[in-house]
Specification:
This protein has one domain. It is α+β, with helices and mostly antiparallel strands. Helices cover 34% and strands 23% of the residues. Helix 3 packs parallel to helix 4. Bound molecules: zinc ion. Zinc ion binds next to strand 5.
Amino acid sequence: MRKIKFSALIILTISATGYMIWGNTSLQKAVLQNLQISKPHLRGEACLKVLEEKKVNFSPLGNMQDKKPCGIENAVRIEGFYATKLSGPLTLSCMTALSLANWFEDIGAKQVTHMGSYNCRKIRGSSIMSQHSFGAAIDIASINGASLKSEWQDEGEKGKYLRDAATAACDYFSNVLTPDYSAAHHDHFHLDHGLRLTCPRKPKNQHYRLANQ
Ligand SMILES: [Zn+2]
């Protein structure tokens, strides 16, 4: 009995210490900002080479410095993807650009209107830096003429296309925020490689492939 009490005390002490350390907001920030997951692990030249092979129209910008902690590792400026026209150029990390290229191929995106990529700022209502601050996030307003603002809830083909595209995006990004997520996202998809793992639920045992649509 004494042994059980002693073990319980140890577990309690470890948990309390862990909570106190995790409760330190600067540690939380460091973890949440720097841990990026489910992104292709191709660094430097290797990543640029894959973008070239995918016939992405881009210029390499190297490591982009900005006021701390903002900046982009292995930044690229993208004018367009092989089969996808953009409403304007994008500045992203090479790895995020690659995830985007793969997703666009998957969903057969021919024309994309975006609302920006790189932006040194905090997440709204939080003290944590947005993944936009590291070139690891993008906001998308419409794909192939289907608008997030007006057609997300649509019963027709455009609405279904957007909802399927969001589900597919979970194969390439860890966070896929849709108009269902919050009022701030009523008119766009926010996609990033951050830690939170926010994705629309996938149907069980069904892997979405939307190529050739
Ligand atoms: Zn965003």
